[in-house]
Write a structure and sequence with these properties.
The complex is a heterodimer. Chain A has a 6-stranded mixed beta sheet. Chain A is of the alpha+beta class. The longest helix of chain A has 30 residues. Helices cover 53% and strands 11% of the residues of chain A. Chain B has a single domain, classed as VKOR domain (de novo design (two linked rop proteins), Up-down Bundle). In chain B, a hairpin with a 2-residue loop joins strand 1 and strand 2. The longest helix of chain B has 29 residues. Chain B is elongated, with a radius of gyration of 15 Å. The mean pLDDT of chain B is 88. The chains are: A alpha+beta, B mainly alpha. Chains A and B meet through helix 1 of A and strand 1, helix 4 and helix 5 of B.
Chain lengths: 245, 133
């Protein structure tokens, strides 16, 4: 057995250390560049999402295609149970629920006529949420509230960074097949302002100050808050199944 | 063994922080906070990497480092340096996000930054001094 000189061992260790550090830097750099929040792919759906190619509309179209929709209500009017969802367009957890779980809820419960979903917009994060609600309720005038909600969540930026702008709303409207000018004009209409006020007042009267908050109302029953252990499809549908029993 | 014990102790501290933040994430509750910005940081888009929350990622990293602390040899020491340095670099990225785009500081993240830096420093010294197997 040949013993290596201590200087050689030390030099080899330093080389190994340098190699490992460079590899770690490279791996983290690539991962953050590809998946991090500052990556170009994320920006396409957040800050520079005035581009019509930003994914939300196509997703929204497939989720809601063929599902009856009237004003703020998604699903058949005759559905025996109403799920009311209180949301703020700037709320990241609302985005999570809409993107991850709503498609499952629509597919399993709304399309089958078991429930209908009612949207209630609230402002818990900041003034910019009001601009988002105006866009959402303006789209409701053309029975596309849920598509607009989805399109805005796909573009969600940092809270109170002012990401909900008129150009962004125009792009979202165009993507979901609405006339952008008509939507922007409707954002200032008294019917839209009144719908927002009514929604915010209802949330206040129920003491709702965090989002998303869910409530269930069965036929002839009262509105009961739906307690969920998580916002992922399995957690949410489990709570929903329990409430529907 | 001289350095593997302090590495293991620091990893336990890191596991405690990461486990708490993982619980906060999945329970949708607010973390205990004295800096006032924890919830904002937790709810920001930087709290996820490719759709995966960063808190459980940190938990996995610390558990890996803890296991490696009990394994003798240069290879284990080298893998430990890799994981710890990757953790330091990623923590640096998250610190940049807190000071810049998020504009809020989370005490738990700062605690994690210090812990992972200590673990990384110990892992580097371990690699340089570990006896060849």
């Amino acid at each position: 057995m040949r013993l290596r000189h201590p200087v050689t061992v030390a030099r080899n260790r330093l080389l190994l250390l340098g190699g490992v550090i460079v590899a770690a830097l490279a791996v983290v750099g690539v991962v953050v560049a590809l998946l991090g929040s500052g990556s170009s792919s994320t920006k396409a759906t957040t800050t520079i999402s005035t581009s019509p190619s930003a994914g939300g509309g196509a997703e929204a179209k497939s989720t809601f295609a063929g599902v009856p929709q009237r004003a703020d209500t998604l699903g058949r009017a005759s559905a025996p149970v109403t799920l009311t969802v209180f949301e703020d367009p700037q709320c990241p957890f609302c985005r999570q629920w809409n993107i991850d779980t709503l498609p499952t809820v629509v597919h399993n419960y709304v399309r089958t006529g078991r429930i209908k979903i009612v949207y209630r917009g609230v402002v818990v994060i900041g003034a910019n949420s009001l601009v988002g609600l105006a866009a959402i309720y303006a789209a409701a005038e053309q029975n596309k509230l849920w598509q607009m909600t989805e399109a805005l969540y796909e573009r969600q930026g940092d809270e109170n960074s002012g990401w909900i702008t008129v150009p962004l709303v125009r792009a979202a409207a165009r993507e979901i097949g609405l006339n952008p000018a008509k939507v922007v004009a409707a954002m200032r209409a008294s019917a839209v302002t009144s719908a927002i006020r009514q929604s915010v007042n209802e949330a206040q009267s129920l003491g709702i100050n965090s989002t998303p908050t869910f409530a269930i109302q069965k036929q002839l029953g009262t509105l009961q808050q739906l307690q969920v252990s998580g916002l992922e499809p399995a957690d949410f549908t489990s709570a929903l199944d329990q409430a529907l029993q | 063994m001289r350095l593997r014990t302090p590495i293991a102790v620091a990893c336990v501290v890191g596991i405690a922080i990461a486990a708490y933040l993982t619980y906060v994430h999945y329970a949708h509750t607010s973390p205990v906070c004295t800096t006032g910005g924890c919830e904002k940081v937790q709810k920001s888009k930087y709290a996820e990497l490719g759709g995966v929350p960063v808190a459980p990622l940190g938990l996995v990293a610390y558990v890996t480092l803890l296991v490696l602390a009990f394994v003798r040899g240069v290879n284990a020491a080298a893998v430990g340096v890799f994981v710890a340095v990757a953790g330091v670099v990623f923590s640096g990225y998250l610190l940049w996000a807190q000071l810049g785009p998020i504009d809020a500081i989370c005490q738990w993240c700062l605690g994690n930054d210090v812990t992972i830096a200590v673990v990384a420093a110990l892992c580097v010294v371990r690699l340089l001094t570990e006896e060849s197997g």
